[in-house]
Amino acid sequence: MSPIPRRSLLKAAAVAGAAAQFSWALGAKDAQAAPRTEAADADPVTLDWLEDGGLGAAPGSTVGVPWPMGAFQEDQTFALTDADGKDVPVQSWPIAYWPDGSLKWTAHAVSSGSGKLTLAAGDATAPEKKVTVDRSGGTIDVSTGVIAVKIGKNGSTIVKSVTRGSTEIARNGRLVLIRQPEVEDEDQGTVKTERFDGAIDSVTVEQDGPVRAVVRIDGKHRKGSRSWLPFSIRLYFYAGADSFRMVHTITYDGTQEPGKASGDFIRGLGVRFSVPMRDEAYDRHIRIGGEGTGLLREAVQGITGLRRDPGAAVQAAQYAGQKLPDPATWDQRVTTRLQYIPHWGDYTLSQLSADGFTLRKRTRKGYGWIAAGGGKRASGFGYVGGASGGFSFGLRDFWEKFPAQLDIRDAHTDAAEVTLWLWSPEAQPMDLRFYHDGMGQDTYAEQLEGLNITYEDYEPEFGTPYGIARTSELLFWANESTPTPEALADQVEAVRVLPQLTAPPKQLIKSKVFGPGLYSEPDRSTAAKAKIEDHLDFLFTYYKDQVEQRRWYGFWDYGDFMHTYDTVRHQWRYDVGGYAWDNSELSPDLWLWYAYLRSGRSDIFRFAEALTRHTGEVDVYHIGQWAGLGTRHGVQHFADSAKQQRISNTTYRRFYYFLTADERVGDLMAANVDSDETFLVLDPLRKVRTDPYTPDRHALSIGFGTDWSGLVSAWLTEWERRGPKWEKAKARVLSTMEGIAAQPNGFVQGSGLYDLDTGKFATADTPVVSVSHLSAVFGLNELCAELIHLVDMPKFNEVYFDYCRYFNATKAEQAARYGSNFGTLLLFQGHSRLDAYAAVQTGDETLAKRAWTKFYSSDGYLESSPWKTEPLSGPVTLVAGSEASWVSSNDTALYGLAAIENLALLGDKMPS
After folding, report:
1. 3-class DSSP assignment, residue 734
2. Which has the closest alpha carbon to 799: 739, 736, 737, 741?
3. DSSP code of 668?
4. Which has the closest alpha carbon to 785: 803, 807, 800?
5. pLDDT < 50 stretches in the chain
6. C-alpha closest to that of 408 among 388, 428, 429, 386
7. Rounded Cα gap, residues 462 and 457, in angstroms
8. From the CB of residue 478, how many other CB atoms can be counted at a distance below 10 Å?
9. Taking the alpha carbons of 578, 579, 580, 583 in that order, is the dihedral positive or negative?
10. Which DSSP string do the residues of 292-358 spell out, in sequence order?
């Protein structure tokens, strides 16, 4: 498809806003939430694991389950049973409410289970070994009934100790940051670094059992008088588990200036523990994960492969990780020469790209390294310990988020040191400088010309990483002895794919969450339906394969994909302005999550999960002047000067949060509740306004499409979650819905003047027609479907259905209704889902017919599109693979959503 003419859109919106005359009368009665419903269907729900294998070696899993409105009240308790009817301990809590006060979503934590589980109303069974939390002393003490963890309240030690029984397994868990103050772009200069340690500012116990406990630790990395790089750590503990999970978030607040070699360059970022070593050197074991469940299995002092044989049983025992018999029972030709066998104390596995890792070891610091192997993609898992106990550790998405590294140091001494490097110190420093010098784009006019050639909206000092974030996940086990190879393989699997319990699509659909009627289970009952299902499968598979072929991996990049393809170079336009990283343009997040909701497919869930982790952290500012705004698509995720609500849109996070109860994503959504304040800081239309405009707290120009959909999603979510500001959020949901409904032309008015203090739109005196093809494609339809289901406001319904009815109408029909047509529009196929939604809501058969007409024969993908890939190989491409040169991410997101929603809404009215 052709590029979206953003300049024309912005100019039209600016003119429309300037033309309107406003009064402060809302012109409608206060809206009300939908009344309490009668008790609804509350049948038991069968939960299942996303992948085979159940919980495995993971500490536990938490799942979100939706309920129909009115099914359960706030004080409802829940019980869980397995396939044999045996009680399974569960901890439950509400995470969202319907407007009538009944439960909309509940979260359920389990610490056991391998098969299907049944959730129903009832009294929960307490775990035999409960999680307990003691806050009374100088530390936060958490016990799972198997391990005990002491968490620091201040200082630089996050985890004071990890014990199992009376044995200390690990201690002194802390955060490590290496800063490099200068980057040399050539081969000269001296590299200097300095180390910062994570320093605790606050500790909060968010849950305290009996099945699940969560402790949050916030702070910054500190050296001397300087503190920077804020972190937020959550530690998760489950009843009866010998392990715990860490969710680690950093927010970049350093300085890196384009064209300058000095700045805050991260050379290494890690989590470090000390591990007491009590066993003899030959009973100390090293395990490092390679490809798949492969392992390096060695001892600090190896007694295999020697010139003299200690005995087959002794060798086998060491390889198995078992305590060896007394050396006095060995062949004495070995026993008397033990002192001459080296002790290997240090190991390093470096994954500096998505395609290769190296492993090396040495006896100790100051002595040479010996190559110990290598491969393509390491699991990110390791273990150090012995017969008396040991520590397993793992970093999720290890190779996907390269450069990563695992270090074991001093395993030959009384205390080994383990470091999981989220950014390997052996890699190039983290260079986040903007990628060009501006090329003379000093004025708005010049910047708009730049937009017209590279599709990049440049502005000096806007391409900054200050305020972006990244979250990583780690797992740790306190083992009573060196685990068996089979147990280690289970731990590796848990690191690579964290087990996730799920509710089935039928329950999601029955509960009417995420927009009632917008999705249904895949249906191939007719040839036409089957063909669309094939197309949906093709698109998802193509993007999944392109991630691999194009190597869309890396610490800051993993999870996202590219926007537009370059058919000449047989390459995505990774280096061409606004055609590069997609940054949620036109809502691919929604396409993927609705694809999962209807299918329950694990591969789609994992793809969407990675996207959500990325777009919610990297593409959005969390601190600084643009906190609450996201960045438009570009060569770097933060490069474009368009900082807008449409990218930070809470709609894109809601799915993952409600399906998993993930607290970090909950933080991201809560942070957006007051993001209406950002319109005081930055005017989205500043480059194209023709009349003077100064942001006024009581008269902020806010669009009813991309702006309002971002704002109202945050308010709706806060209201549903009953967060700290839920009453304010509810009031803003209702007042802004009412304000849009009161406009002379409703949504077609385009924008309104918003009062930050009252949360209300002024009602315009003069009708204006200002419609953009972008307004409804950042989640507006999906949000309005939810709002119309939740809130009894007929006038709002009317103006939204009108918008749906007339976007895809003829220009003559638009002019007849509104006095003028909507001008030049695009994205008709994507908007066919608005036709479908309004057709069902109003019973309009003509609209239903038009929905399929626009879906099949307007723009976007057609039935006549190739719907296949072509092979690629050298010398036309860097890596052999395939291409579908006709595919673009804009069209994919729009087709995907239109196909899913049209099938659900009008699957019975498809043309023959």
Report:
1. helix
2. 741
3. H
4. 800
5. 1-31, 35-38
6. 386
7. 10
8. 27
9. positive
10. TT-EEEEESS--SS-SS---HHHHHHHHHTPPPPPGGGS-HHHHTTGGGSPP--EEEEEEEETTEEE
572 φ/ψ sector (left φ>0, alpha ψ -120 to 50, else beta)? beta
Distances in Å between the alpha carbon of 651 and those of 206, 300, 334, 601, 727?
24, 51, 66, 21, 19
Task: Note the pLDDT of residue 40.
Answer: 57
Q: Please provide the size of the chain in residues.
A: 912
Sign of CA dihedral 70, 520, 591, 553: positive
**Closest-CA residue to 128 (of 220, 200, 209, 234):** 209
Between the alpha carbon of residue 522 and those of residues 463, 585, 610, the distances in Å are 42, 25, 23
Write the CB contacts of 34 (distance below 8 Å, at least 6 apart in sequence).
99, 100, 789, 790, 791, 792
pLDDT digits (tens, 9 = 90+) for 649-684: 999 999 999 999 999 999 999 999 999 999 999 999
Query: What does the alpha-carbon distance between residue 217 and residue 240 come to, in Å, rounded to a whole number?
Result: 23
Encoded amino acid at 559, one letter: G
> What pLDDT, on a 0 to 100 scale, did the predictor assign at position 185?
73
Please give the span between the terminal C-alpha atoms of the chain, in angstroms, as a whole number: 28
Residue type for 428, please?
Q
Q: What DSSP assignment string belongs to 65-80?
A: EE--TTS--TT--EEE
Cross-strand pairs, 736: none
CA 731, chain centre distance (Å): 29
In which residue are the tokens 């709706």 written? 716
pTM of the model: 0.95
Dig out the tokens for 271 from the structure: 């989590």
Contact 498, 246 (CB under 8 A): no
Amino acid letter at 346?
A: D
The bridge status of strand 415-423 relative to strand 87-88 is: unpaired
CB atoms within 10 A of CB 899: 24
- Longest CA pairwise span in the chain (Å): 102
Q: Write the CB contacts of 312 (distance below 8 Å, at least 6 apart in sequence).
A: none
Looking up tokens 């993007």 gives 543
pLDDT in tens, 621-635: 999 999 999 999 999
Using CA atoms, how far apart are residues 537 and 683, in angstroms rounded to an integer?
A: 40
Select from 17, 1, 3, 10 the least CA-distant residue to 749.
17
Q: Is 163 exposed, middle or buried (0-12, 13-18, 19+ CB in 10 A)?
A: middle
SS3 416: strand
- At residue 180's C-alpha, the angle toward residues 668 and 156, to 5°, is 60
- Structure tokens that stand for 4 in this block: 């979206």
Q: Residue 123 and residue 91: Cα distance in Å, rounded?
A: 10
Bridge partners of 171? 161, 274
Q: Which two tokens stand for residue 158?
A: 């996050």
What's 579's DSSP letter?
G
Enter the tokens of residue 330. 């060995």
Take residue 554 and report the two structure tokens written for it.
């890396």
